[in-house]
Amino acid sequence: MKIEEILVAMEDLLEDAWSMPLSGGKCVVSTVELQEMITDLRASLPEEIRQSNEIIAKRDRIILQGREEAELTINTARAKADKLISQENVYREAQQQAQEIIAQAQQNAKELRNSVVEYCDSILARTADSLNKSSAAIEETRKSVLKKKA
After folding, report:
1. CA-to-CA distance for 43 and 60, rounded, in angstroms?
2. CB atoms inside a 10 Å sphere around CB 66
């Protein structure tokens, strides 16, 4: 059951409740039904939170993979540079190529890192927006319920 459906059912339960005489507007509701609705509501919320945690974990894996790839590329570049440097007749060329490879590897790592951060930020922003909307709907329903209490 979706959050909105649960909230509507809770409103219906409150609307159908009968008022207790001389209680200052207090009503009698089925605690079993209300508890079931609260349980359903809680079961509906963790999906968004779980998705957010999965996105964060995915972001961390992507960043780690990017770092590992960058490190492997840098190590490969250094190994190539060391091999070229050991040969005297190509020393200068090897030094220049090694610097270019390292610079390119660092640039690739930076671009990958930036892309991952932007991707994760957009996913987290959408998740936060969804959670904010849900929170606003819950708060609006609470206010509506409290108005009916009086």
Report:
1. 26
2. 19
End-to-end alpha carbon distance in the chain: 29
State residue 20 phi and psi, 5-degree precision.
-90, 130
Asked if 124 contacts 55 with a C-beta cutoff of 8 angstroms, the reply is: yes
Per-residue model confidence (pLDDT) at position 14:
83
Residues constituting the chain: 150
SS3 87: coil
- One-letter amino acid of 147: K
Q: Report how far apart, in Å, the C-alpha atoms of 99 and of each of 1, 20, 83, 145 are.
A: 59, 83, 14, 68
> Can you say whether the dihedral through the CA atoms of 128, 134, 139, 140 is positive or negative?
positive
Q: Is the pLDDT of residue 3 over 80?
A: no
User: How confident is the prediction for the chain on average, in pLDDT?
Assistant: 84
Q: Which sequence spans correspond to the domains of the chain? A: 1-44, 47-135
Token digits for 26? 């207090």
Per-residue pLDDT tens over the stretch 51-70:
887 888 888 898 899 899 98
